[in-house]
Amino acid sequence: YFKKLTLQTENQTMKKICFLIFVLFIIASCSPNQDINGDYLRGVSYSSNGGTNATIKNVETVTTVDAAGDKIVATYNYTGGQLTSVTSSDNSFSYQLTYTGDDITKILYKSVDDTGKDITNTQVLTYSAGKLTKSEGDVVFAGSGTFTSSTIYSYDGDKIKSIITKVKDKATSSERYTIQTDYGFSGSNVSNFKYTLTYAAGPITQPPIILNITLSNYDSYNNPFGTLPMAFKLVSAQFDLENNALYGFSKNNYKTTNIKTNTDNTTVNFSYSYDTDGYPILGTSSAGTVSYEYVK
Fold it and tell me: CA-CA distance, 61 to 83, in Å (whole number)?
C-alpha cells in the first residue's frame, strides 16, 4: 500500500513539474501592495498599475491554449467584490472559498489525478497579526485513502519566505511526505523558487523531488491576478502547481524563466500585449498562448 501511494504521489508530482513549462506562462505573479492598503494577507488585496491610470481590475477568465491546441478556460467568480470560487471548463480543478468577514477561513480545492480519480483538499486557515500563519485539513485521494496536512507559513518581513507542509496518514498518523517551498526576491518581484518533496522513511527509499526555478526580465505592467486574495494565493501556491499563481507574490510579470528538475534544465521566454490600463490581455510563448478578460 505504501509503495502504491508513494508511486502515485511521485507520478502526480512529476506530471505537474513536466507541465510547468506551459503553466509558468499561464500563472503570472501578482502584487498585494500591502504598503498602500495595509491588508497583506486578508480579504482582497488591491494593486496599482504603476502608471498614470489607476484603474483596478479583477481577472474574470484566463484562457490557455497549448501547442497541441488543447484549450482550458478558468473562470473567477465574485460576490460583493470577494472571490468566492474558481472553476475550469474541463472540470480538472475548482476552488470554493469561505469567508468570515473579510478573512478567508476555509478553502476547498478539488482536482483529479493522472488516472482521472478525484482529489479533495480542505484547508482551514489561521491568522496571526494579519498574516496567514497556518492551515490544516484533510486530503482525500479517491481509492487511496485520507491524509491530514499541516502547513506553516513563514515570512521575511512582509514577504513570504517559506511554506512547509507535513502530510500524514489519517488512519495511522504515520508521516508520508513533506513539501517545502522557498522563495527569494529581487525588489518587489520573486527571483527564485525552490520546491522540494521529501518522502518519509519507509520500506522503499525514494529520492526527494526537487524543482528550482529562476524568474527574470520583468516588465513594468500590472499582474493579471493582482486583486485576488493573498491567502488564497498562499494556499494554492503550495498545493496546486498546475493551475494557480505559484509565483503570486510579485508586482510585475516575468518574461524569462529557467526551470531545473532532477533531470531537466529548460529556459522559456514570454511576450505580452497589454490594454490601455496596463494589464496583459495576451501572452505568447513556444508552449502556447494565454488570454485574459477582466471586470472592473
Answer: 13
pTM over 0.70: yes
241-275: per-residue pLDDT in tens? 665 456 668 889 999 999 898 888 989 898 999 99
Task: Check if the beta carbon of residue 258 is closer than 8 Å to that of residue 30.
Answer: no
Provide DSSP, 245-291: -TTTT-SS--SEEEEE-SS-EEEEE-EEEE-TTS-EEEEEETTEEEE
CB within 8 Å of 183: residues ≥ 6 apart: 159, 160, 161, 162, 190, 192, 193, 249
- For residues 229 and 83, the answer to whether their CB atoms sit within 8 Å is yes
List, in order, residues 6 or more apart from 35 with CB less than 8 Å away.
Answer: none
Chain centroid to CA 72: how far?
17
Which residue has 480542505 as its cell numbers? 122
